[in-house]
């Protein structure tokens, strides 16, 4: 199929703008109850995030909004870049669009562009050549390696990460919106006083948290009846494996690394440990797979914080970025994706770490001689996740929180707060980070 044929096929609204309502992503949003709509960005942006999180849906709904506002259909161009291989393919695509369809400004949406080789070089060339004059450009991708370098130097394009819904947004959407501000955990007394005001909603918050542990923050899993693992396991597993294959990685090695992440979930682990307990052998190979899984938003690693700063050579703690991904990867490696009662505290610990990392900078853990560990630290604030009963003596720092199932207590600079309340209060209502 020629490029022009592919463009026409992917942009049916050029011939009939009502065709946008036939798009599968748009239909799902319009039929969902409650309806969840991500607010528009309004400026050129690079939107990164895990596969299946809803990036394509966001782009298609934005297109729908533009067409409903009266934007000329041919000035709205969408293209899924999975079939493109090089920057030359990308330049050719946009050159043909500009010469054959629309030579003026408008809106360009390039989906999953980050797997096109040197895509940023191709886009920079087009920016410099004036192809994007008077144009808002949205590009999306699954690999976060672009965040580690200047992607389009001197060009007005923001880098945003679209994560699965956090617990506050999940609870607001599928349970109820509570009258409570987003708070920093730095003021322990103030945070505790605000948390106590949510005590009347504790039972519902805990129910919502257990639902979140089961479903995660992906929109598709949240809207699925029954256990989403039954219908969506293959979709999410194949999305991750497809990205690994595109990047030339060995599936067996990835599977062994992921299985050990699950085995050591909530505990400190090193690349050497994983290498010795698998057939991989090389700690450098293990490190490369862990790093790549982070770039693909599958995993997040937390490093040891010491007096002199962060020790990147020490053991690390590794969690999945969403509890549903934990379930998918557990089934992929272990054959069964249910979360046993004894696993719940560890999975919730990962949820706490992910929420802290999204909202705050420099989140790590610390470990003292004699085996005393603090699950997470942010500056002088410690966070210990217990899930069951909590006692301020469980926290090995002088200031911070012990996260319990349903206890409220404060002594000096330490507070015991239910984990569901803590997650709700530290989380913002934003979707893009």
Automatic annotation (TrEMBL):
Domain AAA: 46-170
Positions of the DUF4143 domain: 243-388
Entry-linked Pfam families: AAA_14 (PF13173), DUF4143 (PF13635)
Coiled coil: none
PANTHER family: AAA+ ATPASE DOMAIN-CONTAINING PROTEIN, ATPASE
Protein name: ATPase
Species the sequence originates in: Stygiolobus caldivivus
Lineage of origin: Archaea, Thermoproteota, Thermoprotei, Sulfolobales, Sulfolobaceae
